[in-house]
Amino acid sequence: MNARQLNQLQQLRALREERATRELASQRHQREQADAQLSQAQQRLHDHRAALAARAEQVFGRFSEGLSVGAWQAAQEQLEALAESDEALTGEVDAAHQHLDFHQREEQALREQRLARQRQLDACDVLVQARQRRDLLEQERREESDELPSPQVRP
């Protein structure tokens, strides 16, 4: 490899590393967003369950006072609707958790790929440096041999 090819190789490596850094940053951002979505879904579920518990307490408090059949049926319908909403929110939390897991796996894969590329680059750098040292030594030897006085042939 000549100096121009080595320079091009180094430029290509730098471009690849920049691209990998951007990909990793993008994936990290997506993972952070997924984490925030999961936290929000968990908070909504928590708040909903607190509201469900409060409503259930109200219904059972009124039950001790005596409820009409119509009021009891209406309370049951409200509690069933809240329970269905709870199931839907639980599904949202599960989906957000799966989404976060996906992004965490993707981010880890990108980190591993980057580490593998770095190991390859390090190995390549060792080879390039060895080649450069060898070329330098050869050049120095040639220069030394050119500087030595040539033997004079006597007639």
Keywords for this entry:
155 residues, mainly alpha, 2 helices, 0% strand
- Uncertain spans: none
The sequence of SSEs as H and E is HH
What count of helical segments does DSSP give? 2
What's the count of strands?
Answer: 0
**What's the pLDDT, averaged over the residues?**
86
Helical proportion, percent range? over 70%
**Largest pleated sheet:** none
Which percent range describes the beta-strand content? under 5%
Oligomer: single chain
- Principal-axis shape equals rod-shaped
**Rg measurement, Å:** 36 Å
Alpha carbon gap, first and last residue:
46 Å
Helix and strand content put the structural class at: mainly alpha
